[in-house]
Amino acid sequence: MRNIIVLSLLLLNVHHVLSAPKGVTASLKAKWSMTPFLLETSEFIGEDGNEKFWLFVDTVKELTVYKHGESVRSYYNLILKKAGQFLTDLQVYLLKFALALRSYSPAVHASQQIASDEPPPEACAAFVSIHGQHSCSAKEIKKLLKAAAGRPKPYLYKNDHIYPGVNKTDVPVVILYAEIGTKKFTTFHKVLSEKADEGKLIYVLRHFVADPKPRKMLLSGYGVELAIKSTEYKAVDDTKVTDSKAVMNSEDDNNDDVQGFLFGTLKKSHPEIQEQLTELRRHLLESTNDMVPLKVWEMQDLSFQAAARIMSVPKFDSLKLMRDLSQNFPGKARSLTRVAVKQEMRKEIEENQKHLSETIGVHPGDGELFINGLHIDLDIHNPFSILDILRGEARVLEGLHNLGIKGEHQGKMLKLPVNAVDDSYALDIRHPAIMWINDIENDPVYRSWPTGVQELLRATFPGVIRQIRRNFFNLVLFLDPVREESVELVKLAELFYKHKIPLRIGFVFVVNTKDEIDGFSDAGVGFYRLLNYIADEYDLSQALMSMLSLYNTVDVGETLSVDTVSAYLKRKFPKANAERILGVESEYDDKRQDGALFYKKSGLGALPLALFNGVPLSPDEMDPDELETIILQRIMDTTTTFQRAVFMGQLTEGSDVVDYLMEQANVVPRMNPLILSTDRQYLDFTAKPVVDDWEDTTMFSYLDSRDKTAVMAKRMKYFTNSDEDGMSAVTMWIVGDFEKVSGRKLLLNALKHVKASRGVRVGVIDNPSGKPSGDNTVLYRAIWASLLTHKNKAAAEFVQKLLSEESSQLLQQGTKMKHLLIQGMDEDAFEKKFNTLEVDFVRSQQLFCREVLKLNPGQGAVISNGRKLGPFEEQEEFTVEDFHLLEKITLSGSAEKVKAKVKQMGMKPKHASDLVMKVDALLAAAPKGEVRRDVHFIKDSHSVLRLSPRENEVFYDVVAIVDPLTREAQKMSSLLIALSQVVNVRLQLFMNCRAKLSEMPLKSFYRFVLESDVTFLANDTVSPGPVARFTELPESPLLTLNMITPESWMVQAVRSPHDLDNIHLQEVSGVVTAEYELEHLLLEGHCFDLSTGQPPRGLQFTLGMSRDPLMYDTIVMANLGYFQLKANPGAWTLRLRKGRSEDIYQILTHDGTDSPADAGDVIVVLNSFHSKIIKVRVQKKAEKINEDLLSENSESKGIWDSIASVWSTFEKSITGGGSKKDDAETQKEDVLNIFSVASGHLYERFLRIMMLSVLRHTKTPVKFWFLKNYLSPSFKETISHMAESYGFQYELVQYKWPRWLHQQTEKQRIIWGYKILFLDVLFPLAVDKIIFVDADQIVRADLKELRDLDLEGAPYGYTPFCDSRREMEGYRFWKSGYWASHLGHRKYHISALYVVDLKKFRKIAAGDRLRGQYQALSQDPNSLSNLDQDLPNNMIHQVVIKSLPQEWLWCETWCDDASKVTAKTIDLCNNPKTKEPKLTAAARIVPEWVEYDSEIKQLLRRVQGQEEAATQKQTRSPSQHKKVDKQRDEL
Fold it and tell me: What is the pLDDT of residue 1524?
């Protein structure tokens, strides 16, 4: 009762003025129409493989008929149910998240875009395209196929859905454009899939919705910020805004407490006074939202106070509270100052911070996120890429979960360092067959060199090879002495030796090994014996020196002959007996086979060969002309590796360098490309089949491939040679037909390997050549019977005997199996088993070989821990050495580490070995990402929020480190909430607080737009989509709205009557709504000239579709060869711009694109919200080698202006004024190009006035260039009318701030950046000079004078700051300190007006220098305080500024009144002394300003009147839509 009285008293004090709640909402819609959920779902499933995609398509063949009978929600649930047949529960959650994000919408729309490029036939719900001919009817397919072969095949993209029919290449390709689930699709699909199964055609499906719904969809995955602006200078437009009444949805904002009242609870218990409660809540909020700045001592502890507050509430509310505090911080700051912080918490946070900075380099205030140990950098990642990561992880997590690895063990397995597949394996060079001609460590020649490994760290000139007495660099040459290539290679070795290059050189001579050959019939053998003779008589190095001189007698192009060898012997050793040395009975023939044997065992390719530190050089590197530079380059490259090893203490003074080299992970005993190849396929062991029956082949045939594999693994029997612990880390399955010699040999080698190696087990699978029967499975059944009835050792011995060739001959001659048994075997048991074994299980095995291993009957293969090698060719031998290598590679991958972890789990050896095999296959098959970090905290009772996962389900291990009052926290809190709704997470969130804050940690309100599932309204229709809502904002501060989107998005405001740059809620009734549109997805790239390695500055690219090849264009920057092109989902063609670019250059190769790397047309498919970055390499055409793109003389005039400009396709709808002339006229036409930027209604009002003042003072045609990125929708709507009235041309240019250039966070600074940083790439090459005029300037002279002014070779001209107004002396910051000393005698220039000679600017790469300097300076937040002005002034020594005459810019703040008379332009600079508002200053200083202003206002009123009249006309003839249809359209 008492509560009610208190409440009533409070309510009496509140005046009853119920006004609409105020707030701000922002939304972002896609440029393309809504894509159906069914198609997006099919794309999601398609990522799991083509097979699943087509199964799903079959299941939903005619699903759209339900669309009309059901509510939207139940249709959506139906789609999920259908998808659920192919997805696990976890994947269904991820699918819902993907649909909420509309993550696959670009993929669907890309297909639509490709279809529209075909183009589709009129009024056609679905159509086929057969080699360029179209038809809407399935009946015509036959007719079109007939002549198809004569027409060229269509281009297929990487992500096209190709029906898994019979794979043939020489048949026609039929592309079906249709919408899955419709009747029309089913008709086509039936015909096409049948024909594809018969192998008559290749069937490709692309999504195509015949009449897309006009509704646009709202996107999510971005942030919206309302930053508090400084109001030191009043810069708000006073024009009134008329607003359509928008209503705020505020039901979800009642659950927080306001000054101790829990309004959510109160409203539930007192529904009758709901309105008054709302009013009271507003009153309390207003009284707390006073936003009075905090004192410095109040701020110090805010971060800790926020953490204390978050840790004090119930666990499940903590994330929401963190989101609330960080995203609404300016309004919450005062209440946080009253929170007390416990000493234990402070201490714990400091201890954890110390530990984190030592282990993973995270410092106080940093924000980091780890999912399963993978570092998620929030600057790069967005919800779309995080969804991809979740999806990739799901496979491994579900696999481990199914294999029974749960809880703590999961993390341990995941974090095992799986060695990335190495593509440069090395051969062990510590082999006696290598003859070394020198030894750096022991030969007297090198005695003067220092021996310490620390010498490597001494500084030297670049490119100098350090001479150290260690065998760091070893070159081994495998040569056949009689081949002509050997001559040059030996001479090259001599060159290295003579020049004292620190290279130890060894030879392996591969000569004829037959005993009966002698030195008189084979020059190679003669050469070898001669070498041995000299080595015996003198020493080895003398022998090798003689070898060099012997080769010097052979001319290049000749080969070593027997005569040369004997002549050399006679000449050099006249006393020697040639017969005794070279003849058949030679005493100098020992070890002749060694070289050949070593060569054969090594498994290397064709001779001649070279190994550098054991790594084989590729055949094309063996060209003697190239080899010298390649070896020297390798020496330089390897030096850095050694330096690192010395620095890290892995290589010490006591180490033997060669031993160190040969103990690296990539060193193998032999080379076998099949085993070492990087392209590896693995079986999937993670299924849990319902049955494990392989006796019933029919039943077995119905299982899918994962289930078949699991049954095989469960039923397999092994020959083992286990470790002491009874486990085997490597499991090999030998597949073959054991009635064939090749099959028997393979198994025999495997068994020999098992005998020699512990920790290996071998299972056997039969793949008979014919249909399995009693006759062709005899051997295999005997093997199986012995495994079932006998102990391991006996079975292995018996099988080895059985596999020998004599046994198989005996069996063929009719010997009974029992006569082959060995001593100690239980004859009866074996006989009984052998005679009763059915052949059925062999049929299942053959089926497994065909369907899962993709082997033909009779083919052999080896499977090692799930990795498939084979099929082997008939003659291909897999030797014991190969098995040894395969074991080493399998162990070093992850098997050894997996085994150690499985051992800790304590299970029976057989189960443990199975688990090692299955987990190893799973981890090895997972794509190799970055290293997983093990992040843990020393203490976690006060500073770590822990949320436990649901039991017995797959869970993600998420560790977040964040200071609750940072920009990272604003984003991360929303992300973590969504993550915990989408998947099962185990969360640890550490409060990484900063101490002693000296300023407000956050100066903005923020929302991150992200939903975990598609939301529906009460009437079961889809909600319009996610929106950023700001409610309960304080009304006093001035706010500016900023969209923070993923890197490659280009968004623009399309509708808002309000000034989004200056939102002042006190002056607004209701809600400020801002509607944005995702205008473009960027295609970014880097371009280099192959011959110089430098970016080709000034090169232009164009992007378009086949029917409109020039839609967007761009210029390449010198920084990183960067370029960006605007695009949207679809397939695009990138070309060199017609004109000089295409004349001088040609594209050679490209990466990251969707066409083969050497194809001339570069095709790029944009089909996701992710960034797309490509690399293009170009080269000058041979005849144009000396031409320069930016050279003055041969500029082909005329083409540029005619074609739409850089970065911005000509906005056809809004091109004002000047009509397009012919190419030739356009260029020579005298045009004044004026560039300006503006943001916010006030500056746009100034901008219009500036334009008017320019036009009034010149007779020259004017073209205005505006930066589109920040213009308001109302300006973009009205500019065309203005252009029409005043007869000027204009163009809107835009550029997205490149990701590699240091980002600014404050809107004003970003705009300043755009003024100066991208001048070379914003405008077409045809624009020679551009004049930048600030929006708040009034021009009183003809700007043609300024354009024609001689800049005396400088790239740009600026006006210096005035010195004449004396009373402002104290404010002239450039007169003292840094600027005074930096500028010397030069002046400090103002950036309100400047003229740029773009030709010169590009020629001296001024833009690239400015960006480089900006990149260096901007890392320090205190530098470049007036970015656009400080940067050119700072660079004045590198990029010269021409000082313009003072009268070009007059501004009252710095110039005296006397000079105003001669002023050519007047700038409304801010006055730091009086802080006078801009509008009053304008009217006072410039008399004509008021006239201009009223003239433009009149024009705008007239335009508005015309538009209103037009809309009224339309509404008189309304087209009535049925509401029902509208609801259906939402899918």
Answer: 41
